[in-house]
Amino acid sequence: MKYIDEFRNKDLVKNLVQKIEDIADRNVSLMEVCGGHTWAIQKFGISSLLPDQINLMSGPGCPVCVTSKRFIDQAVAYSRLDDVIITTFGDLIRVPGSSSSLEKEISKGNDVRIVYSVLDALDIARNNPDKKVVFLGIGFETTAPGTAQGIKNGAAENIKNFFVLSSHKIMPPAMGALIDEGVKIDGYIAPGHVSTITGSGIYQNIPEEYGVGCVISGFEPVDILQSIYMLLKQIKEKRYSVEIQYSRVVKPEGNTIALKTTEEVFKLRDDWWRGFGIIPKSGLGIAEKYKMFDAEKMIPVDVEETIEEKGCICGEILKGLKKPHDCKLFGKVCTSTNPVGACMVSHEGACNAYFRFSFDE
Amino acid sequence: MCLSIPGKVKSIDGGKAIVSVGGTEYETSLQLLEDVKVDDYVLVHTGFAIQKLDEEEALETLRLFNELEESNKKEAEK
Ligand code: SF4
Question: Where are the alpha helices (H) located in A111-171, listed in sequence order?
Answer without folding.
Answer: 118-127, 144-156
